[in-house]
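Case study: 7-carboxy-7-deazaguanine synthase.
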Amino acid sequence: MKMSKEEVMNLVDQGLWLPLMEEFYTIQGEGYYKGTAAYFIRVGGCDVGCHWCDVKESWNANLHPPTEISEIVENAIKYSDTIVITGGEPLTWDMGPLTEALKAKGVKTHIETSGAYILTGTWDWVCLSPKKIKLPTKEVYEAANELKVIVYNKHDFKFAEEQAAKVNNNCILYLQPEWSKRNEVVPDIVNYVMKNPKWKVSLQTHKYLNIP
Ligand SMILES: C[S@@+](CC[C@H](N)C(=O)[O-])C[C@H]1O[C@@H](n2cnc3c(N)ncnc32)[C@H](O)[C@@H]1O
Ligand SMILES: Nc1nc2[nH]cc(C(=O)O)c2c(=O)[nH]1
Ligand code: SF4
Ligand SMILES: [Mg+2]
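Here is what the predicted structure looks like once written out:
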Protein backbone atom coordinates (compact mmCIF):
# COMPACT_ATOMS: atom_id res chain seq x y z
CA MET A 1 0.00 0.00 0.00
CA LYS A 2 1.46 3.35 -1.05
CA MET A 3 1.77 5.99 1.66
CA SER A 4 0.65 9.58 1.18
CA LYS A 5 3.19 12.41 1.13
CA GLU A 6 1.90 13.51 4.56
CA GLU A 7 2.40 10.03 6.03
CA VAL A 8 5.99 9.90 4.77
CA MET A 9 6.70 13.43 6.06
CA ASN A 10 5.38 12.38 9.44
CA LEU A 11 7.72 9.37 9.57
CA VAL A 12 10.67 11.59 8.57
CA ASP A 13 9.72 14.05 11.34
CA GLN A 14 9.95 11.19 13.83
CA GLY A 15 13.33 10.03 12.49
CA LEU A 16 11.85 6.66 11.45
CA TRP A 17 12.54 7.38 7.80
CA LEU A 18 15.38 9.64 6.62
CA PRO A 19 16.21 11.33 3.31
CA LEU A 20 19.12 9.23 2.11
CA MET A 21 21.54 10.91 -0.30
CA GLU A 22 24.20 8.22 -0.57
CA GLU A 23 26.01 5.55 1.40
CA PHE A 24 29.45 4.10 0.84
CA TYR A 25 32.12 1.95 2.44
CA THR A 26 35.39 3.87 2.56
CA ILE A 27 38.23 5.04 4.79
CA GLN A 28 37.46 7.85 7.23
CA GLY A 29 39.55 10.62 5.71
CA GLU A 30 39.46 13.24 8.46
CA GLY A 31 40.11 13.80 12.13
CA TYR A 32 40.86 11.30 14.89
CA TYR A 33 39.72 8.16 12.98
CA LYS A 34 41.42 9.06 9.70
CA GLY A 35 42.75 5.91 8.07
CA THR A 36 40.06 3.70 9.59
CA ALA A 37 37.58 1.79 7.42
CA ALA A 38 33.98 2.87 8.03
CA TYR A 39 30.58 2.82 6.35
CA PHE A 40 29.25 6.31 5.61
CA ILE A 41 25.58 7.25 5.52
CA ARG A 42 24.95 10.68 4.03
CA VAL A 43 21.59 12.07 5.08
CA GLY A 44 20.09 14.88 2.97
CA GLY A 45 19.04 18.27 4.30
CA CYS A 46 21.09 21.22 5.58
CA ASP A 47 20.22 24.88 5.95
CA VAL A 48 23.48 26.10 7.47
CA GLY A 49 24.74 27.30 4.08
CA CYS A 50 28.57 27.27 4.20
CA HIS A 51 29.70 28.95 0.96
CA TRP A 52 32.59 26.47 0.57
CA CYS A 53 30.57 23.33 1.40
CA ASP A 54 31.87 20.36 -0.60
CA VAL A 55 28.45 18.61 -0.71
CA LYS A 56 25.96 21.32 -1.71
CA GLU A 57 23.88 18.65 -3.50
CA SER A 58 22.95 17.42 -0.02
CA TRP A 59 21.21 20.63 1.07
CA ASN A 60 17.75 20.11 -0.42
CA ALA A 61 16.24 17.18 1.48
CA ASN A 62 13.44 16.86 -1.10
CA LEU A 63 15.93 15.60 -3.69
CA HIS A 64 16.83 12.56 -1.58
CA PRO A 65 14.47 9.59 -1.18
CA PRO A 66 12.91 9.05 2.25
CA THR A 67 14.22 5.66 3.35
CA GLU A 68 13.14 3.43 6.21
CA ILE A 69 15.85 3.27 8.90
CA SER A 70 15.60 -0.54 9.25
CA GLU A 71 16.60 -0.77 5.58
CA ILE A 72 19.54 1.60 6.14
CA VAL A 73 20.70 -0.34 9.20
CA GLU A 74 20.40 -3.85 7.69
CA ASN A 75 22.50 -2.76 4.76
CA ALA A 76 25.13 -0.77 6.70
CA ILE A 77 26.01 -3.53 9.17
CA LYS A 78 27.02 -5.81 6.29
CA TYR A 79 30.00 -3.58 5.61
CA SER A 80 31.51 -2.35 8.86
CA ASP A 81 31.25 -2.20 12.63
CA THR A 82 31.83 1.56 12.45
CA ILE A 83 29.08 3.65 10.90
CA VAL A 84 29.61 7.37 10.23
CA ILE A 85 26.44 9.45 9.90
CA THR A 86 27.06 12.61 7.90
CA GLY A 87 25.17 14.85 5.51
CA GLY A 88 23.90 17.40 4.92
CA GLU A 89 23.37 18.16 8.56
CA PRO A 90 22.31 14.96 10.34
CA LEU A 91 20.96 16.90 13.33
CA THR A 92 18.32 18.40 11.05
CA TRP A 93 16.51 15.15 11.94
CA ASP A 94 15.87 13.09 15.06
CA MET A 95 18.86 10.73 15.11
CA GLY A 96 17.41 8.73 18.03
CA PRO A 97 15.72 5.88 16.13
CA LEU A 98 18.57 5.37 13.62
CA THR A 99 21.33 5.29 16.25
CA GLU A 100 19.32 3.11 18.64
CA ALA A 101 18.77 0.59 15.84
CA LEU A 102 22.50 0.65 15.01
CA LYS A 103 23.49 0.25 18.67
CA ALA A 104 21.08 -2.70 18.95
CA LYS A 105 23.18 -4.37 16.24
CA GLY A 106 26.36 -3.74 18.24
CA VAL A 107 28.06 -1.32 15.85
CA LYS A 108 29.76 1.98 16.66
CA THR A 109 27.97 5.19 15.78
CA HIS A 110 29.96 8.27 14.72
CA ILE A 111 28.51 11.62 13.68
CA GLU A 112 29.90 14.46 11.58
CA THR A 113 27.98 17.58 12.58
CA SER A 114 28.01 21.36 12.62
CA GLY A 115 26.19 21.09 15.95
CA ALA A 116 23.74 23.77 14.84
CA TYR A 117 20.70 21.88 16.15
CA ILE A 118 19.75 20.05 19.31
CA LEU A 119 21.75 16.87 19.82
CA THR A 120 19.74 13.70 19.28
CA GLY A 121 20.98 10.12 19.02
CA THR A 122 23.34 7.79 20.89
CA TRP A 123 26.90 8.32 19.76
CA ASP A 124 30.25 6.61 20.31
CA TRP A 125 32.03 9.53 18.65
CA VAL A 126 30.97 13.11 17.97
CA CYS A 127 32.95 15.19 15.49
CA LEU A 128 31.90 18.81 15.88
CA SER A 129 32.77 21.14 13.00
CA PRO A 130 31.30 24.48 14.07
CA LYS A 131 30.20 27.13 11.61
CA LYS A 132 30.15 30.91 12.30
CA ILE A 133 26.83 31.38 10.52
CA LYS A 134 24.96 28.95 12.83
CA LEU A 135 26.83 28.27 16.05
CA PRO A 136 26.58 24.93 17.87
CA THR A 137 24.16 24.29 20.71
CA LYS A 138 25.49 23.89 24.26
CA GLU A 139 24.79 20.12 24.32
CA VAL A 140 26.99 19.50 21.30
CA TYR A 141 29.96 21.42 22.76
CA GLU A 142 29.62 19.22 25.84
CA ALA A 143 29.35 15.96 23.87
CA ALA A 144 32.08 16.65 21.27
CA ASN A 145 34.96 14.14 21.18
CA GLU A 146 36.76 16.14 18.52
CA LEU A 147 36.49 19.75 17.39
CA LYS A 148 37.35 20.17 13.69
CA VAL A 149 37.54 23.81 12.64
CA ILE A 150 37.78 24.52 8.91
CA VAL A 151 40.37 27.17 8.05
CA TYR A 152 39.45 29.28 5.03
CA ASN A 153 41.41 32.41 5.99
CA LYS A 154 43.51 33.90 8.82
CA HIS A 155 40.44 35.05 10.80
CA ASP A 156 39.50 31.43 11.31
CA PHE A 157 42.27 30.91 13.89
CA LYS A 158 40.50 33.39 16.19
CA PHE A 159 37.20 31.59 15.59
CA ALA A 160 38.94 28.27 16.33
CA GLU A 161 40.15 29.54 19.75
CA GLU A 162 36.68 30.86 20.59
CA GLN A 163 35.22 27.44 19.79
CA ALA A 164 37.95 25.57 21.70
CA ALA A 165 37.02 27.62 24.79
CA LYS A 166 33.49 26.20 24.62
CA VAL A 167 34.13 22.47 24.26
CA ASN A 168 34.71 20.00 27.09
CA ASN A 169 38.27 19.44 28.42
CA ASN A 170 38.75 16.02 26.78
CA CYS A 171 37.90 17.22 23.29
CA ILE A 172 40.69 16.78 20.71
CA LEU A 173 41.34 19.93 18.67
CA TYR A 174 41.86 19.91 14.89
CA LEU A 175 42.43 22.55 12.24
CA GLN A 176 41.47 21.40 8.73
CA PRO A 177 42.23 23.43 5.58
CA GLU A 178 39.26 24.39 3.43
CA TRP A 179 39.92 22.35 0.30
CA SER A 180 39.93 25.14 -2.32
CA LYS A 181 42.23 27.31 -0.14
CA ARG A 182 44.56 24.53 0.92
CA ASN A 183 47.66 25.91 -0.80
CA GLU A 184 47.24 29.29 0.92
CA VAL A 185 46.21 28.14 4.39
CA VAL A 186 48.31 25.02 4.95
CA PRO A 187 51.51 27.00 5.75
CA ASP A 188 49.57 29.12 8.26
CA ILE A 189 48.05 26.02 9.86
CA VAL A 190 51.48 24.38 10.15
CA ASN A 191 52.93 27.46 11.86
CA TYR A 192 49.91 27.81 14.10
CA VAL A 193 50.05 24.21 15.30
CA MET A 194 53.78 24.43 16.04
CA LYS A 195 53.16 27.59 18.11
CA ASN A 196 49.99 26.21 19.70
CA PRO A 197 50.52 22.47 20.10
CA LYS A 198 47.17 21.83 21.74
CA TRP A 199 45.94 21.83 18.11
CA LYS A 200 46.54 19.08 15.53
CA VAL A 201 46.32 19.17 11.73
CA SER A 202 43.50 17.32 9.95
CA LEU A 203 43.57 16.88 6.17
CA GLN A 204 40.85 15.52 3.89
CA THR A 205 43.04 12.51 3.13
CA HIS A 206 40.32 10.74 1.10
CA LYS A 207 40.67 13.47 -1.54
CA TYR A 208 44.40 12.70 -1.86
CA LEU A 209 43.64 8.96 -1.99
CA ASN A 210 40.93 9.50 -4.65
CA ILE A 211 38.34 7.58 -2.70
CA PRO A 212 34.81 8.72 -1.71
C1 LIG B 1 29.97 18.06 4.43
S1 LIG B 1 30.04 18.18 6.17
C2 LIG B 1 28.58 17.27 6.68
C3 LIG B 1 28.39 17.22 8.17
C4 LIG B 1 27.97 18.51 8.87
N1 LIG B 1 27.01 19.26 8.12
C5 LIG B 1 29.18 19.37 9.18
O1 LIG B 1 29.36 20.42 8.54
O2 LIG B 1 29.94 18.98 10.07
C6 LIG B 1 31.35 17.02 6.61
C7 LIG B 1 32.66 17.64 7.01
O3 LIG B 1 33.27 18.23 5.87
C8 LIG B 1 33.78 19.50 6.22
N2 LIG B 1 33.87 20.26 5.00
C9 LIG B 1 32.85 20.61 4.17
N3 LIG B 1 33.30 21.28 3.09
C10 LIG B 1 34.65 21.37 3.23
C11 LIG B 1 35.68 21.95 2.45
N4 LIG B 1 35.41 22.61 1.31
N5 LIG B 1 36.95 21.84 2.88
C12 LIG B 1 37.23 21.19 4.05
N6 LIG B 1 36.31 20.62 4.83
C13 LIG B 1 35.02 20.71 4.43
C14 LIG B 1 32.77 20.00 7.23
O4 LIG B 1 33.25 21.07 8.03
C15 LIG B 1 32.53 18.76 8.07
O5 LIG B 1 33.54 18.61 9.02
N1 LIG C 1 36.41 9.32 3.21
C1 LIG C 1 35.65 10.29 3.71
N2 LIG C 1 35.87 10.72 4.95
C2 LIG C 1 35.04 11.68 5.44
N3 LIG C 1 35.05 12.21 6.67
C3 LIG C 1 34.03 13.09 6.77
C4 LIG C 1 33.34 13.11 5.55
C5 LIG C 1 32.06 13.82 5.36
O1 LIG C 1 31.72 14.24 4.27
O2 LIG C 1 31.36 13.96 6.37
C6 LIG C 1 34.00 12.24 4.69
C7 LIG C 1 33.81 11.81 3.34
O3 LIG C 1 32.97 12.29 2.57
N4 LIG C 1 34.65 10.82 2.91
S1 SF4 D 1 26.93 22.56 7.75
FE1 SF4 D 1 28.01 20.89 6.73
S2 SF4 D 1 26.63 20.15 5.06
FE2 SF4 D 1 25.82 22.11 5.84
S3 SF4 D 1 26.64 23.61 4.42
FE3 SF4 D 1 28.09 23.53 6.13
S4 SF4 D 1 29.62 21.95 5.57
FE4 SF4 D 1 27.87 21.73 4.16
MG1 LIG E 1 33.10 14.87 2.76
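For the exam, be able to explain this: The chain has a mean pLDDT of 98.
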